[in-house]
Amino acid sequence: MKHLLGLRELSKEDIIKILNLAKDMKTILKSETKKTPHLQGYSVVTLFYENSTRTRTSFELAAKFMSANTTSISVQTSSVQKGESLLDTVKTLEALKTDVLIVRHSFSGVPHFIAKNCSFSVINAGDGMNEHPTQALLDMFTIRERLGTIEKLKIAIIGDILHSRVARSNIWGLSKFDNQITVFGPQTLIPPYIENFAEVASSLEEAVSGKDVVIDLRIQLERQKRGFITSKQEYYKFYGLNEGIMRYISGSTLIMHPGPVNRGVEISSEVMQLPNSTIDEQVTNGIAVRMAVLYLCTRKEGIYR
Amino acid sequence: MILIKNAQLVNSIHDKAEKVDILIVDDKIEKIGKNIEENPDKMIIIDASGKYVMPSFTDIHCHLREPGFEYKEDIKSGSRSAVAGGFTTICCMPNTNPPIDNRAMVAYIKYRAREVSPIEVLPVGAITKGLSGEELAEIGFMKEEGAIAISDDGKCVMNANIMRNALLYSKDFSIPVISHCEDTNLSEGGQINLGHVSTITGLRGIPREAESIIVARDILLAKETKAHLHITHVSTKESVRLIKMAKEWGVNVTADTCPHYISLTEEEVLGFNTNAKVNPPLRTQEDVEALIEGLKEGVIDCISTDHAPHHKDEKNVEFNLAASGTIGFETAFSVLFTYLVEKNGFELGKVVELLNQNPRKVIGLPPNVIREGQKANLVIVDLKKKWEVREENIVSKSKNSVFLGKLLTSYVETVIYNGKILKKDGVLNC
Ligand SMILES: [Zn+2]
Predict the structure, then answer these.
(1) Does B198 contact A192 at a Cβ distance shorter than 8 Å?
(2) Cα-to-chain-centroid distance, residue B65
(3) Which of A45, A162, B84, B292 could anchor a disulfide with A189, C-beta 3.0 to 4.6 Å?
């Protein structure tokens, strides 16, 4: 596997390969030393044009646990627009002998653009509104670990579907496994033609009822100014996972959230603390999944030869 | 003297392609007939057996980028690219730097064109000073100097009152107002059509109403002012419908669409192909069909290329930062032939009209006609030739064609303008 750009173009078999390997990686995480030599001698660079301590740290730890040399570059998109072009940055990274680049950008398609213009491996750590493949993979890993399968499940995704790369990657990934996917959120945040890929529920109750998994998405509060949502309070009342809605969710329904959580906006603290909430576990599983992806991207016998 | 032998002649939809010889003396067509006597010592003889002869084409919407952006294209390179596609009259849009928004700039373009262009270049003046959408440019002076239309193309005149005044004012000078219809509040930040592909790729979408709302607005303003409104690069089925309605109302409105809108859909963007980033964006199959229907019915009057050259460095970037536009001269005829004639049963004569007499009518020019006594402005086309659009064969300075890699049928082999052979057997001679 040379690159991981998204789950839309990844096959079912590739996904299973990653999840299986992540399971092994998780045992390493549980060991005392947390160190393997898999990436010894490899140079892994994280290039983040958007802040995300969480994802970046997760990738960096994954690389470090596998003995890679890691470097992180953070850039403000604005300074990039006046100065060095992304293409120049890519050429520089190539000259600096980068083996794997982990990139996050506010524009959709940036990892694809880099992959077309470089010789190293590119891992998409979130691009615009397009994909966040490792997040979806860790969600799938968590689901499989908890429920024993990622097939033929009823899954709801709640919130800002329009702008969410997490939602897209999850939809593309989970759709490959015969799952029934339902989405729900304010109409302003439901993208056109999503009905070709997921059922659109008409109420939160309908969306979560009888589901095996509920994936709750983070809401960007700036969306209020652009007319997508009205207020935190109203969002919480009509679209939030609160105690009221718990009547429709069974004790075995997994409650997931990619974090960081806006408490009392998308979800209540009480719901977060329920035993079927997997929010903290997702973070741990994220490292294991990223270790698996890093491993496969640096192997010639990987998925994309 | 040039003698074209055995060509099938098509001037318009009313012509039955007839096999004739055409004799050109100086800049005029001297004689059309069967078996005109050859005189190899005095004549250049072009054997056009199995090929078609038609009037050369006119494009009412292109970007030549001079002055200001000569690294993308200039009047000379753009004109040569036009010749390669069979165009001998082209109208260049005013969004240069500085913009063509005053008499001196119109004069400058005309002067430069006389110096360096082998064909006729007609400038389009701006509607507003600096293309700012705020204050009317000196439309009268620009017309006097040779501007054939006014447009703020690239930008929409968002202030309806300014647009209304532009339409009213244009009437005193009998000059059409070419409208780039885009409600920028709706399109802001948008990269591609809002729909299936924007949902899949996560690229921000531009709703189709960004176009059709302004089409509707401008039609209402044209209805009231009775001015000549020309809507350029129509891309949606709603726009076609509105224009149809306007024509039924008797509004003085004409419209064009471009080869890419009648052939390609938003799917071209999949894989983040920046050459498929155009404005308005590529739409859906339904829109393609509505546009073709609109052309068939005459709701859409003609084809323009919206030839929009950009440097490689402006396309080989993040999709959001990529410049919008595709070059268009060199593929226009072949795209129309492939998608309208071959796939949709259009008559060849109709395509000829869409590229000659109809656009000329919009800007008030008489049609080119291949007839004895007329200026010799014509092209010879091989309708059977199949070719793949490849970067290395592009004449324009810029290679940003949305048709790269596409297989097209028919090829403009020879171009004659005012009796001069500018392209012969596929080789440019200008
Ligand atoms: Zn335009």
Answers:
(1) yes
(2) 15
(3) A162
Q: Would an 8 Å CB–CB cutoff place B196 in contact with chain A?
A: yes
The residue to which tokens 């063509």 are assigned: B100
Structural tokens at position B269: 């963007």
- Residue B280: asked if its preceding bond is cis (omega within 30°), the reply is yes
Phi, psi of B68 (to 5 degrees): 110, -35
Interface test with B, best of A78, A113, A163, A172 (most B CBs within 10 A): A113
Q: Which of B89, B74, B180, B75 has the alpha carbon at shortest distance from B127? A: B180
Radius of gyration of chain B (CA): 21
B-chain CB neighbours of A196 within 8 Å are 196
A104 touches chain B (CB under 8 A): no
> Residue B278 C-alpha to ligand 1 middle, in angstroms?
9
Q: How many residues does chain A have?
A: 305
The pLDDT tens digits for A31-87 are 888 889 999 999 999 999 998 899 999 999 999 999 999 999 877 654 555 568 899
Enter the ipTM.
Answer: 0.89
B306 is known as an active-site residue: yes
Quote the minimal CA–CA distance from A246 to chain B in Å: 30
A79 touches B: beta carbon within 8 Å: no
Reported pTM? 0.93
CA–chain centroid gap for B253, Å, is: 17
Find out whether B382 and B55 touch, Cβ atoms under 8 Å. no
In B102-208, alpha helices (H): 103-116, 139-145, 160-171, 184-187, 196-201
Model pLDDT for residues A249-270, shown as the tens digit of each residue: 988 999 999 989 999 999 999 9
What tens digit of pLDDT does each residue of A115-173 get?
999 999 999 999 999 999 999 999 999 999 999 999 999 999 999 999 999 999 999 99
Q: Which of B245, B247, B254 is nearest to B302 (CA)?
A: B254
